[in-house]
TrEMBL record, chains A, B:
<keyword id="KW-0805">Transcription regulation</keyword>
<dbReference type="Pfam" id="PF12840">
    <property type="entry name" value="HTH_20"/>
</dbReference>
<dbReference type="InterPro" id="IPR051011">
    <property type="entry name" value="Metal_resp_trans_reg"/>
</dbReference>
<dbReference type="InterPro" id="IPR036388">
    <property type="entry name" value="WH-like_DNA-bd_sf"/>
</dbReference>
<dbReference type="InterPro" id="IPR001845">
    <property type="entry name" value="HTH_ArsR_DNA-bd_dom"/>
</dbReference>
<keyword id="KW-0804">Transcription</keyword>
<feature type="domain" description="HTH arsR-type">
    <location>
        <begin position="1"/>
        <end position="95"/>
    </location>
</feature>
<protein>
    <submittedName>
        <fullName>Transcriptional regulator</fullName>
    </submittedName>
</protein>
<dbReference type="GO" id="GO:0003677">
    <property type="term" value="F:DNA binding"/>
</dbReference>
<dbReference type="GO" id="GO:0003700">
    <property type="term" value="F:DNA-binding transcription factor activity"/>
</dbReference>
<keyword id="KW-0238">DNA-binding</keyword>
<dbReference type="InterPro" id="IPR036390">
    <property type="entry name" value="WH_DNA-bd_sf"/>
</dbReference>
<dbReference type="InterPro" id="IPR011991">
    <property type="entry name" value="ArsR-like_HTH"/>
</dbReference>
Length: 99, 99
DNA sequence: CGTATAATTCTATTATTCTCGAAATATGGA
DNA sequence: TCCATATTTCGAGAATAATAGAATTATACG
């Protein structure tokens, strides 16, 4: 995982709406949620949500599959773990810390 | 740690110069580094660096102390750990993951 | 095929962030 | 006190991000 991927993931999560979307998807588990339901639960207009989802998708933090007319988004836990791994390794000291 | 603090920390780190500054400070340990030396090592103009350092400071990720004419910045590991803790707890599934 | 539903892409507007030159503040030493 | 050093704050310009209305694509079903 390169630094630019880390920055992409961090900026994807460093925004109120997107962090809430991601947290919601985390609670939804691997079943995921259709875009419309995310929009409704979080009171975000569909086009704005779509903008945020594409950010999360580009950062590799969510994946999407189609089910009929719905697009189901779900959290990509592996990616998130990789980001946390990077931060733990590179941003958390060789002093007495973080283990 | 509240969500707005997490967002502050994430956006502080979600920027190339600031991530490099923070990583440099992490390697410097508790001794820290004076602003001028950070600017020199990373080839960032002093005023721009100051802008970035204040971001990191507002996010609680670095602290500063004065030593003569120099201001010594150092990484706040505890804060970083708290951020990682939050992300692990809230953004990392109750599925088989992240442990 | 025609219509309805689900979501995205397009376009424009506003807001925020980044960068850097210039000016200001704080400290130390002659 | 006067000057040099270290760093920050101010002010302005350029770049990037967020929001939402309108138009478009994709699927389902009568």
């Amino acid at each position: 995982m390169e630094e630019k991927d880390i920055i992409a993931a961090l900026s994807a999560l460093a925004q109120d709406s997107r962090l809430r979307v991601f947290r919601l998807l985390v609670t939804a588990g691997s079943a995921g949620l259709p875009a419309g339901q995310i929009a409704e639960e979080l009171a975000i207009t569909p086009n704005t949500l779509s903008f945020h989802l594409s950010h999360l998708k580009n950062a590799g933090l969510v994946v999407v599959r189609r089910d009929g007319r719905s697009l189901i988004y779900s959290a990509e836990y592996g990616r998130m773990r990789a980001v946390l791994g990077y931060l733990t390794e590179n941003c958390c000291s060789r002093d007495p810390c973080c283990s």
